[in-house]
Every structure is written in C-alpha cells, then in structure tokens.
Amino acid sequence: MSGTSLDGIDIALIKTDGEDTVKRGPSRTYRYVPEQRAILKDALKDALAIKERRERPGSLAEVEWSLTEWHALAVESFCQDFGLTSADIDVIGFHGQTVIHRPERRLTVQLGDGPLLARRLNIRVVHDLRADDIATGGQGAPLVPVYHRALAQSLEVLPLAFLNIGGVSNVTWVGAHGELLAFDTGPGNALIDDWALKMTGNPVDTNGRLAFSGRVNEAVLAQFLGVPFFEEKPPKSLDRNSFAGLDLTGLGPADGAATLTAFTARSVAMSRAWFPADPKCWVICGGGRKNPALMAALRLSLGLGPEAVIPAEAAGFNGDSMEAEAWAYLAVRSLKQLPITFPGTTDAPEPMTGGVLAEA
Fold first, then answer.
1. Distance of CA 38 to the CA centre of its chain
2. Is the Cα torsion angle 196, 4, 230, 46 positive or negative in sign?
3. Mean pLDDT in residue range 184-197
4. Contact at 8 Å (CB) between 44 and 93?
5. Over the stretch 111-135, which tens digit does the pLDDT of each residue have?
6. How far apart are CA 308 and CA 319, in angstroms?
7. Span 147-164, pLDDT tens digits
8. What's the helix, strand, coil split of the chain in %, to 5?
9. Which helix (H) or strand (E) holds 263?
10. Sign of the CA dihedral 331, 333, 338, 342?
11. 8 Å CB contact between 116 and 71
12. Where are the beta strands (DSSP E) in 103-194?
C-alpha cells in the first residue's frame, strides 16, 4: 500500500513468496480530495523543521493520525470492493507519506502510524522500510528495484530498464544475470504539476497539451541540467522539492511546461552514462506514462521508438499499482528477513533487510 504522491492511496493485492513467485491481484487508487491534498502540502512545509526522525513539529502529529485513518478507510473500501476480509490478508506493506528525505543527514520521515493501522484493521503491518538503510548510510531509496527484478523474469528482453515517473523519476537497470543498479535520475512530474497549477489552476498538464503547445527554452534547460546532482555517481536520491528553486522567470505557461517536460526526459537520457550496458527496452511506470508529451520527449531524448519505450501495460504490468504491489512484496521479504536494499540500489554497505513489524 503506497501513498507516496499527493494524488491518493494506491492499494494492490498480490500473492508472493517474496522471491520469484508473484501473482498480481486487484488494485485500486483512492484519490485524495482537494482538502486532503492541501493538508499534506502544509505538512511538507512543517516537515522542514524536522531535525530527528521521531519529531512531529507543527501539525505533523495530527496529520499523521489523519493519514493513517485515511489509509485504514481505503483498506476497508478495498476489501468491500473485492469481497475480502481481514482474514484474507496476511500482511500490509505500509509506505505512508514521505514529508522529508535527506539521506545526507541520515534523515527520512514517512508519516504513518504502523501500529495504529495494525490495530485499526486487525492485520499485521510492516512499515518504516527505509529507516534501516538510511541509518547505515544508504540513500533509503529507491526500494522498488528488487520487485522490478522479480517482474523482469517474465520478460525476455535484458538488459531492461524500469523507469518510474512520480514526483521524481527513478530508474532500475536489470542486467542479463539479474544485476541491479537503481537511482533517482532527476525530476519527474512534480515540477510540471506545480507549474501547471501555478500558471493555469489545473494541478496537472492534462494530456501534455500545455507542453505540446510550447517550445523548449534550450538556454534555461542547459542551466537546469548543469545542477551538480547529475554529475554525482549513483546510487543517489532526491526529495520532491530538490529542484523547487529553479528559475523560470520570463517563460510563459506553454514554454515553461515544454522546458520542464524536456528537463525530465533529458535527465533520464543522461542517466544512461551510469549503466553497464544500454537497456534494450524501457518500461515506463508511474503517472508520467500518461503524459503523451513526456512520453514523446523520452523517446526523442533516448533516440528510441515506441516499441522500445513502452508504458507498463504494454509489458503486461499495471503502471498505477506497481509501487503498491512492490510494498506488499517488500513486506513479505521483510518478514522473511530477505534483503530489500543493495549496494547497487541505495549504496547500502551490504544487502540488507529492513522494516518494522506491527502485530495485529
């Protein structure tokens, strides 16, 4: 169960041994109403004051309780929608809402009370899956790569890249023998969404129309791509607000959207410099795959056609539920004390497990 974005709560049901066997079941997104999104955006501001991961300054304690209740209600709705009871669910993987992620300070905070959720639903919950990795000097993200590797076994195209475009973009490179390399490539949807909201009042660039109608400002784009992050060797990770200070002064709504869309795409293309071999196929997950302007920009930047840069559905997966499925998979691996992070994915010192179990 994942609530990493400000869009809503993604829930997915899978049956897995936490290793090679994955049987995907139903999934659903329970979207936040504007009032809930506003509460979470305020929480992001309050979180800037956090110095230690257990601190909850400002409204954060109240928001954490509310967020946990929203997740409980979503699980109850999911069970009702698909004819399930609590007895049908062995464990919940609970991500919560990331409000601050500063691995250089060994600090990451995902709002969400695992023990409260376990009591509320009478189902055991694995939560706080990033904390152990961060505590040992890892980046704490991304955590989905080990699930990507399990999914890649159903495809016969390796090396393969899974690109998740959420608030930020992250890539998993899966080698011919199951080798893993994963890192955040740069911005995802966050800058585009924030720009669209600011300039048009619409929280997203629907169907990429704004970007399609504009022209990329190459000088501004070059400045954005000069940010030191892109020269850093992976593994590496970003916060949603890592690029919030970029200056788009002088750009109109359409040109700004086109430039930000190109920024996401070209930063993805730059990430190939770190791969041991070029992927034969890119599987695009997350909300970004639904933006035709962004998909077109990706194909242009990668120099590949539509048969090699494909939405998750074209590979037989569900791009909306993949992260929620991954959290369920990670919860099972946590229960079995199997590694969930690796030197090549988070810069962990060694393959390591993580997560905290809250009993029902």
1. 20
2. positive
3. 95
4. no
5. 999 999 999 999 999 999 999 999 9
6. 16
7. 999 999 888 899 999 999
8. 45, 20, 35
9. helix 253-270
10. negative
11. no
12. 107-111, 125-127, 160-165, 168-174, 180-187
Q: Using CB atoms within 10 A of its CB, is residue 48 exposed (0-12), middle (13-18) or buried (19+)?
A: exposed
Residues whose CB is less than 8 angstroms from the CB of residue 33 and which lie 6 or more positions away in sequence, other chains included: none
Residues in the chain: 360
Residue found by looking up tokens 């899974």 in the block: 162
Indicate the helix (H) or strand (E) that contains 94. strand 92-94
Note the pLDDT of residue 4: 57
What are the phi and psi torsion angles at 62 (to 5°)? -65, -40
Helix intervals (H) in 57-110: 60-82
Angle, vertex CA 182, rays to CA 334 and CA 342, nearest 5: 40
Residues in CB range of 307: below 8 A, 6 or more apart? none
pTM: 0.86
